[in-house]
Design brief:
By secondary structure, the chain is mainly α. The chain is 71% helix and 0% strand.
Length: 138
C-alpha cells in the first residue's frame, strides 16, 4: 500500500486512526457491554457495590433492583460487580497500550505501508488482548 492510494498522508493517517479505534472498540466489547448508557449504569453499580462492601448504609437503588430481579442478595451482587470490574481492569490496560502504541506509530509514519504495519501489529495485540511491544519500526 502506498500513500498515493490516499489523497494525502493526512487522509491515510485518519483512515488508520479510525481502524485502530474500531479494533480497540471490538476488543473492549469482548469484555464490557457496548449498549448506549451502559457505562454509566456500570459506574453507578460499581459505586453502589463499593459502598455495600464497605458497610456504608446508603441507598443502592440499581443494585437493589437487580438483586430483586435476579433473586440475589445485594451483598452477593456487590461482590459479583466488583469481581467483574477487577476482571475488566486486568485486560483494559493491554487494550489501551496496543491502541496508543499504534496511534503513536501511525502519527510518526510518512507512508501508508508503515501505518498499515502499525495497524496489523495492533490487531494482533488486540485479538489476544495483550499489549504489543511499543517498538518503533518506522
Amino acid at each position: 500500500m502506498k500513500v498515493s492510494t490516499f489523497e494525502s498522508v493526512g487522509e491515510a493517517r485518519q483512515y488508520y486512526f479510525e481502524r485502530v479505534e474500531a479494533l480497540a472498540g471490538a476488543a473492549r466489547a469482548r469484555h464490557v457491554t457496548q449498549t448506549p448508557g451502559q457505562a454509566e449504569v456500570y459506574a453507578t453499580k460499581l459505586a453502589e457495590a463499593r459502598t455495600v462492601l464497605a458497610g456504608v448504609g446508603v441507598d443502592t437503588p440499581i443494585l437493589a433492583a437487580e438483586a430483586e430481579a435476579t433473586g440475589q442478595s445485594v451483598q452477593d451482587l456487590a461482590q459479583i460487580v466488583t469481581s467483574r470490574n477487577d476482571e475488566w481492569l486486568a485486560v483494559a490496560p493491554a487494550i489501551e497500550k496496543a491502541r496508543q502504541c499504534a496511534r503513536r506509530r501511525i502519527r510518526a509514519a510518512d507512508a501508508a505501508t508503515d501505518m498499515h504495519a502499525a495497524l496489523a501489529e495492533a490487531r494482533d495485540a488486540l485479538v489476544r488482548s495483550a499489549a504489543s511491544e511499543c517498538v518503533d519500526t518506522i
